[in-house]
Amino acid sequence: MTLPASIRRDAVTLSARLPSLIIAARRVAQTVRHGVHGRRRAGSGETFWQFRPFLSGEPSSRVDWRRSAREERAFVREREWEAAHTVWIWFDRSASMQFGSSLAPVTKIDRATLLALAFADLCVRGGERAGLLGLTRPLATPGVVERFAEAIATDERLRGASQAPLPPALPAATRSMVLMLGDFLSEPEDVARAIQAVSAEGAIGELVMIVDPIEETYPFSGNTEFLDPAGALTVLTPRAQNLRDAYLARLAAHRETIRAICARSGWGMSIHRTDASPAEILLALRMRLSAPEPGAGLRSA
Amino acid sequence: MFGLPLAFAAPAVLAALVGLVGLYFLLRVTPPSPRRAIFPPLRLLIGLDPTETTPARTPWPILALRLAIGALIILAMAEPLWNSFAALSGSGPLLVVIDDGFAAAPAWDKRMDFARERAQAAARGGRIVAIQTMSQGGQDVAPLDRAGIEGRLRSLSPVPYAPDRAAALPAVERFLAREPNTDILWIADGVEVGGARAFSARLASIARSVEVVTDNRGALALAGADNEAGALTAQITRSDARAPATGSVRALDVQGREVGRAAFDFGANMTVDARFDLPVELRNDVTELVIDAERSAGATWLIDERSRRRRVAIASGASADVAQPLLAPSYYLKRALQPFADISEWHDSSSDPIVSLLDQKPSVLVLADMSVAPGPELDAITQFLDNGGVLLRFAGTRLAAGDDTLTPTALRRGGRLLGGALSWESPKHIAPFEAGSPFFGLAAPDEVTVSRQVLAEPETGLAEKTWARLADGTPLVTAERRGKGLIVLFHVTADTTWSNLPLSGLFVDMLRRIVAEADAPGQGAAKAKVGAHGTVRPPLRTLTGFGVLGPPPAQAEPIGDDFSGVGDPFHPPGFYGSRDSSRAVNALAEGQALARADYGPLTVHEGALAITPPIDLRRWLLPAALVGLMIDALVSIWLMGGAPLRRPKALAALAVAAALGLVSVPHQLRAAEAAPISDRDMDAALSTRLAYVMTGDATVDETSKLGLTTLTRVLASRTSAELAEPVGLDPARDELAFYPLIYWPIVAGLPQPKPEARTRIAAFMKNGGTLVFDTRDALTARPGGSPTSEALWLRTLLEGVDVPELEPVPHDHVLTKTFYLLDRMVGRTAIGQTWIEALPPADPNDRVQRPARAGDSVSPIIIASDDLAAAWAEDIDGRPLFPLIPGGARQRELALRSGINLVMYTLTGNYKADQVHAKDILERLTR
User: Is this prediction's ipTM beyond 0.90?
Assistant: First the structure.
């Protein structure tokens, strides 16, 4: 999704950019869905999942009599999508996400929003329910993207732009999946605490670090004053190029820490650079949703 | 300085260059602001051990640039001058002596520049400077400061005469006595007149060092003009063989118009004549001769009426003239008059001599011993006298025997014979002329004797009538005013039988003065009145040093009749007397030659005046510093990374900086740009076209353009008016005169045009153009309601413009009949009122019912409100651009017809008002 720079500059608030993001999200989701269809032809909702022994207390209507007639026990036939997954999505809307360097086509928050909406669309069309963590309940309506957008816009209007770099401590239910999008540049302990809070009830999830290319390449040299996006901190360095190696090492270490934290909770972690195609990461996320592989993470992209 | 022709007007400022060292250290430790970058993973950077801890330094290119800027500014403040004379030697006071006679006038500016440069250079060097001019030699020489030098030099101008240089010596000597170390710089004109040799000899003896600077050109001057028979001859003299050898002299009349032009070529000579081959009437109009391209009083020769050439008719009573020409009086008269008059004689024997001569309108009629019989001759002469002619008669046997009234005084019959065999007396000499006589000032030579004369009857007033007497007091020449004319009688013959006066030079001079009396009405009378004290002629118009006639200066004094010198401080060259009869005083004497000055022992720098003026380097230094500052700013911005400058943008910024620097540099370049006629005006003048005023509102302008384009196209297809593409105008800038019709849509919100626009549209309307204002407010205007904002805007615009009385277009106005028959003007709307110059009321005596009326001319202003151009406007495919109200193809057609009528009205005027009578006229013709 590339918008003219002027529009990007004008649409300072996220809500102002939401309409275009919705369209982009739908387009990306469609691309990805078609990709999935072409590979799997999985069919919808009717797929046989497994027979399991009948547990007492269950309604008798669930008994699959044909299967039960072969043996002496009663079996219950479970279908694959009968109880849809709940997917909780959260993305970072803090000031540091507003950053978009000249190397990137979009800001980080735009990319995060795009991914969040597209993923929600994908999930709902795949028969699952998607909800914005802390903003909406899980929804399965085809217009989930609009609903999410409305929720974001309402939240921004009522409470102003969210400055929280980490998700609220709302535990997601078991067997639900959580997608967290953000730059996760906070202290690793805070990240660990947030993930633990969310996955307290056993939800697994995926953490996607959105990275601006400039944060990875560090193309600075000479007398440079670095500013915090929130404007609170500054670092003045006369020769920025001398910090490059140390910075990159520290960045790698930070990522490893986060990755370890995720792995501890059985989460996956992946890194997405804003100059890469959103479809790529979305497809990976979608695949992970279809074949949950706790703790594996997505190392690509 | 350093062997370069470079000097500083304020060298003390250069000391500030030392400060550059301080600036260097200051700049070095204050690096440019760091580049600021927003960096979200800032937390990761905190606490990183920077391996490099030395503080940032200013990069050396920026350091060098800033130091250069500082140096440039300091240098500029020191006012550097290129080509200055500061390097010239000398330490004592400097006295600049300036020749300011007329010979210095042609190169006066150069002299002043030179004097200014040298004086200022000396003053900058701390020397005392004084300036003395030759014409103000009487004043004491006082030292001047730098401002004083400038003021003094500005106040100087050349004088129209050649000042006496000796008069300037005492002041110079006094100054030298006070300041013995003085160096003298004499900016001389290279001409001897005024005593250059004596002055230079004296200077050489009293001054420590004298430097003479002249131009290497010498002077050209006019030294006389001769109104000869057949041609006017100007004598030109030059002081130096290097003076221009060829050129031309212009003859100007009293109003300064060029009457004639004559070329001259000195060849190797120092004097040359230029001949004006002009008819005598034109030659007599010449009052001033001017050498072309030589602006000086010396190169101007004023001609008064004394040298005006008169036509003199000679009639003689003697019939034997032809047989013995040397004995005929007309021979002597011709010889004497020829140098200054055109002579006509009577040749045609078939007609009456006097009448036929007077038909040639002479100024002077000479009757040599001829009596005038009553009859047509007497009538003709009386009328001639009444018209101001001069009748000059010579005595002789016929006159003495005859009896007519055309004599100044009654004559005694018979005459008087002196020195003959029967006479006791010897031939008489002529007495010196009295002051009241026109001959006053002429010498009466002893060898002139009169042996016979006619005698005047003694009567009262005879003395006043007498212009010349014999030594015994008997009148020799008498004169009397008769009407406006004058009768002069020589009491001797014009040949040598009665006296030898006709053989003398005095005779020529006397005749010259008598002829000069012609065409000088009232002068003789005035002379008679003034009598013995002589005529005093106050200065009328005098020459400036540059040879321009102007009001006389305060110290100019009147001249007497006997004034015969050249111009001097109190009698500057010019015209003296009254407008009717003025006397010219010139800078040079008649026939005077200009000699090249000899400066004796002094060192002379010839041609040194031709200096190139020093160049003020500030002109280049300051813009260079400005450009440097801009580059510095750009580099700083780039270093800060605040605005990532892409290459084209940076180049553009640099170009702007350079352009700014350039425009502030050369005054000469800007002065040169004077394109008298733009291509656009040329184009507009060559083909007729409609025009619209560009309001500044893009939509309205585009609409006007498209509308007029459509109208032009429709005009070409339906009518014979094939106009060129319409143009948009800015009334404040463009010439409006080329356009017959200018469409001006009013946009209320925009600012009023500049005041020049108002003058231009006023002139446009005065000169017959038609302005069509379109307020486009038909939908909002309410009849009788408050004016719309467009109407108010238009009112403000037309304040101070002479707008005729207006009326709504009457149904019979010629505007509705010029091509189509229309009821009203229609545009995008069809309800608006169109106003036009009010017609004169219909003639109540006109019995015929006229279908159309028109004023005498096209209305200079038409105010429509129906948004005409919008109705015409079509896009490139011919589709209308705007919907019409109420709409329909018919309305669009009517709108176009309105436009056609409008254009036809402005192009053809009121002739259609006549054309509608064509039927009646044809009927009348065939009847």
Answer: no
